[in-house]
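Re: weekly structure request thread

Next one in the queue (198 aa):
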Amino acid sequence: MAMAESLPEDWDRWKGQVDLTGYDERWQRMAEAGENPHGEADLVSSFRPSSVLDAGCGTGRVGIELAQRGMRVVGVDADADMIAAARAKAPDLDWRHVDLAALDLTEQFDVVVLAGNVVPYVAADDRPAAVVACARALAPGGRLIAGFSLRPDWPTAGDYDAWCVDAGLELEDRFATWAGSERFTDQHDYLVAIYRAA
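Done, posted below.
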């Protein structure tokens, strides 16, 4: 399993503007205001997986919630600071500092989730390889669930579709939000795509 070596400039810019403690507190404030901060976990849970790979896990928000719901979770991220933050919050979970494009796990998962703009924050040249690596981590019939913003300088829905098809996955569904209540169209600026392994 290769360690992460470099992250794209987009990621460095974003991280330079964000206080990780404040970032985590954002989700707590949402919950206190009566909003649901766990849309990603809700969608993943709807498929009743027993195991989940939280790929690009960040500070562990999604993975920790899924573990609390009874799933076996492994979290991986290319940013060492993010992994350290996740470990500090949930030291009993399995957190690994790994570049997605070089991901090579022995275990397989019912779901691999890429939540929170993970796909566009993978270095541009490595995105197809990262999708292939995530597909390899799926158990037969498992799902790759990814959600990310669609910006002019980031991957398009078509780009992501092509990488998934090249990785041997089949499209199951596409939504405009993690709530799964609105189908994705070309008019939306956010994509949640669910692909399934054979």
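The CA atoms of residues 63 and 132 lie 21 Å apart. The mean pLDDT is 91.
Next request, please.
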